Amino acid sequence: MASEKEQAAMAYWKENVRLLITLLIIWFIVSYGLGIILAPALNSIVIAGYPLGFWFAQQGAIYAFIVLIFVYVFKMNALDRKYDVHEE
Amino acid sequence: MDLALTTYLIVGATFVLYIGIAIWAKAGTTGEFYVAGKGVNPIANGMATAADWMSAASFISMAGLIAFLGYDASVYLMGWTGGYVLLALLLAPYLRKFGKFTVPEFIGDRFYSKTARVIAVIALIVASITYVIGQMKGIGVAFSRFLETSYEVGLFIGMAIVFFYAVIGGMKGITYTQIAQYCVMIFAYTIPAVFISLAITGNPLPQLGLGGTVSDGTYLLNKLDNILVDLGFSQYTAMKGSMLNMFFLTMSLMIGTAGLPHVIVRFFTVPRVRDARLSAGWTLIFIAILYTTAPAVGAMSFYNLINTVQPGPIGSEDGNLLYEDVPGWFSRWQETGLLAWEDKNDDGRIQYYNSDNAAFAPTAAEYGWEGNELTVDRDIMVMANPEIAQLPNWVIALTVAGGLAAALSTAAGLLMAISSSISHDLIKGVINPKISEKSELLAARIAMGSAVLVAGYLGLNPPGFAAQVVALAFGLAASSLFPVLMLGIFSRRMNSAGAIAGMLSGLTFTLIYVFTYKGWFFIPGTNTLPDTPEYWVMGIGPQAIGAIGALINVVVATLVSRATAPPPKDIQELVESIRVPRAS
Questions:
Q1: Residue B139 domain flag
Q2: Which helix (H) or strand (E) segment is A50 a member of?
Q3: Could you state, in order of their start, the residue ranges of all structural domains in chain A?
Q4: Total structural domains within chain B
Q5: What parts of chain B have a pLDDT lower than 50?
Q6: Per residue in A17-35, pLDDT tens?
Q7: What residues of chain B lie within 8 A of the CB of A27, using their CB?
Q8: Which residue of B has its CA nearest to A19?
C-alpha cells in the first residue's frame, strides 16, 4: 500500500501529464495541422488580407505558442497549490 | 554627421555599455560563474534567453530568407519558436528543480554514469562549436562591411569584448550583457520595420501591415503573389517544397531548439521552478517580437525591391527601371557586392525575373529579356532597410550595432556552455572530483578564455563546411540530447544502458544520413548521393532528419532499458523529487 503522500504525488503527476498532453495536442494542431498540412486548403480563405494558412504559419502559430506557455504557467501554479507542493 | 562616424559612435557606445556591465557583474563563486547565482528575475532571464537564442542569422539573414522563400520559410519561424513550448512543458521546470550547473551533469547523475555524461559533453561541444563559428564570422563580416576595418580586425575586437565580460563575469556577466544586447537588437530591428510598414501599407504595426493594402488598394500579399507569378516565380503565399519535408524540418528545428544546451542552461539561473516556467513564456514573447516582425520585413522589402526595378507594367518596353535612374542605396549596396546587375540584353534597364523557369522562357523572350540581370544577397533585406525607408543615419548605425549584439550575445552563451562542460563536467566531474571551489573557478575562467581563442581561430580560418554544420547542430541536439533529457524525467524506468544506447543510435543514424548527402566528415566531394530532393529518402532532406533520429533514440532507449535492470532506488527517488516543485 502506497502511503497517502505517495498517492498525492502520483495524482499530482497524473494531472500534470494530462495538462501537458492537452496543450501539446493544441501545439501540434496550430503548427503542423493548420500551418502545414491544411495550409494549402486554408489559403483559399482570406481574412484581413492574409491567406489563412499562410497567417497560421508565419504569425498565428507563434501567438498560439505564447498563449500555450502562459496557460501552462497559470494551470501549473494552481495545481501546485492544490496539491500543496508550491514553493512559497 | 557622416554615416561612418555615426556608426563608430553608436557601436562604440554599445561596447562601452557591455564592458561597464562586465565590471559591475563580476563572478565571485562557481555558482555565480555557472548559473549567475540562481538569482535572475524571470523576465530579465527571458530577455537574456531571447538574445542568447537569436543569432546573427536570425537578425541579419532571416527576413531575406523569408523574402525569397515566401511561405516555405515558415518552417524556420515555427521551428525556432515552437521549440520553446517543448522546453517549457517538458524540460525547463524539472531541470531547474534538479538544481545543478550543467546539462551533461543532469545526464550523468540521472543515468548514474560517467560514460553518459561524457557522451553528452561531446554532443554539446560539437553542436556549440559549429554554431559559434557562424557568430564569429558574423562579427567579422559586420565590421568589415560597415566599419571599414578588415575582417580580422573586426573579429579581434569582437573576441576581446566577449573575452572581457565572459571571463570576468561568467554566466552573471553574460546574463546582464545579454539583456542590454536584447534591447539594442530589438530597437534596431523594429524601428526600420515600423517605418517601412508605414511607407508601404500605412499601418505602423508590421504584423498588421503584412495583411494590409498597398497604394493601389489591393492587399500586399495578393499583389506580391500576382507580381511574382507574372515574373515567372511561384506564388509568395503558396507551398513550393514537399509537405513531408516541411513537416519533419519543422519538427527537427523544434526538438533541436529544445535540446540545445546553451538555451536550456539559461533556465538554471532563475530562483524557483515556477520562475523557470514563467521565464520560458517571457522568452517566447521577446523572441516573437522579432519573429513576427521578420515576415513583414521580408515581404515588404522584397515588394519594395521589385517595385523599384519594375516601376511600370511587366512586359511593357519602359516598364523596367533605367540603370541611370537607380536610387542611392542601390549603388551603395552594389559597391559591397551584395547587389549585382549585369545588362544581359543591353537595353540599359534592370530586369528581375525567374530565368530558371522553362515555362516562362517564351514570355521572357517575347519581352526581349535575355536572362535575369539582378542578383540580390538575402542579408540586404534587413541591412538596407533603413536606407530604403530613408531613415536618418543613426538608424542605419543602430542596425549595425543590432547585428553585432545578436552575434555577440549568442557567441557568449555558446562559449559559456562549452567552457562549463569542460571545467565542471570533465575536470570536476571526471578527472579531478576533489578540486577546490577556488581552483574550479580558475579552471572555468581558463576554459572560457581558451574557448574564446579557439572560436576566434575558427572564425579566422573557417572550415569550408561551416555552413552545413550549423544545420547539423540542430540535428545533433534533437537526436541525442533532447530525447534522453525527456526520458530521464518522464520515465522512471529509464536506465543508463538505455540512455547510452539511445544517444549513440540517434546520433549515429543522424550523422550517417547527413554525411551521405553532405560528404563524409564534411569533406567536399565524398558524398554518397547528390544533395537534391530527388535523392532524399521519401523527400526528407538531411536538415530535417533530426526528428527521425530523435524517434530512433526514444525507441532504442526504451527497448534497451526494458531488457536490462531498472535504475537503483536512489535514482528513482531523484526522478520523484524533480517532478515536484517544492524541496522535500
A1: yes
A2: strand A50-51
A3: 4-82
A4: 2
A5: none
A6: 999 999 999 999 999 999 9
A7: 82, 85
A8: B89
